[in-house]
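Ligand-bound model needed. NAP.
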Amino acid sequence: MQTRRLGTQGLAVGEIGLGCMGMSYAYGTPDDAESIATIHRALELGVTLLDTAEVYGPYMNERLVGKALAGRRDGVVVATKFGFRLRPNEPRGVDGTPENVKRVADESLQRLGIDIIDLYYQHRRDPNVPIEETVGAMKELVEAGKVRYLGLSEVGPETLRRAHATHPISALQSEYSLWERGVETDVFPVLRELGIGFVPYSPLGRGFLTGSFAHGNELGADDWRRTVPRFDEANAADNARVVDVVKRTASKHAATAAQVALAWVLGRGEDFVPIPGTKRRTSLEENLGAERVRLDENDLAALDGVATLASGARYSEEMMTLIER
Ligand SMILES: NC(=O)c1ccc[n+]([C@@H]2O[C@H](COP(=O)([O-])OP(=O)(O)OC[C@H]3O[C@@H](n4cnc5c(N)ncnc54)[C@H](OP(=O)(O)O)[C@@H]3O)[C@@H](O)[C@H]2O)c1
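Prediction:
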């Protein structure tokens, strides 16, 4: 697998990472044995970046990744995230206080069974805590040898600039895919100017762009995607037009829709490292095949317009308030 750089501080990873969230959280029934086998297979195939977070479960996904990492830590870049109030009896919400930044890092290290977090992200900006205070605490973790590189998720240009002035930021992780391109206009120019790498999350549109389901009602009763407006049955006809274009492109290349969706993201920037999520070895192997798909100008022209066909917000209104633009 090709290597890509994230930021200018020395972080380098295989160009496709593995999102581990859905192994324990939000996307249907977990299968820990197959998930661990998937992580092991990913590492064998050259994936180095594993993505998890405190909130996935909560806690369960970090424990699962920790279990998978036992005896295989060398060469793996472990990325995790803090940023929410999760303890019982606490009001729910975001927490970017220095105390939380540091406490969660210690707890994540324990759950992951490692002694340094390679990439530590703030999951969502806390509007009540100046970003300098949050990143200041993250910087202290770097100085203490508990964290190697810093990242942010779903923040806008001003936060990126202020954070980067406090301590160099190596990666921004935000949603980005064929049908979700909101970061292109305002955020990408700042990433380029500051030399910050980009980790597109949900590059398969939370599975939708693979063509494996038409709307949320087809998913399990406890699947979180049922709460996402974009997966409302009412939007299914519009969104099917997106998948049709992806499938047509795929058949031209004897590839799959998932591979085309990932090849498109990989082609958008030399420092873009998508983290498609799967809990199955078969899907993992399929997704890594995206590296072989070469999209031509006609493909890119056809795919370029699909985001405008998509209907429905990508989060509930309440969750959208945490996304900075
Ligand atoms: N920073 C943030 O706020 C944030 C938010 C969301 C996600 N993330 C991170 O980004 C990672 C990836 O995003 P995501 O998991 O939301 O979405 P995604 O990668 O766009 O899609 C994952 C979904 O696609 C399915 N899938 C994967 N490969 C497939 C294939 N080849 N064929 C058919 N279905 C396939 C998976 O199902 P199976 O598991 O059943 O294979 C899963 O349901 C997460 O794991 C998480 O680490 C971060």
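The CA atoms of residues 191 and 197 lie 7 Å apart.
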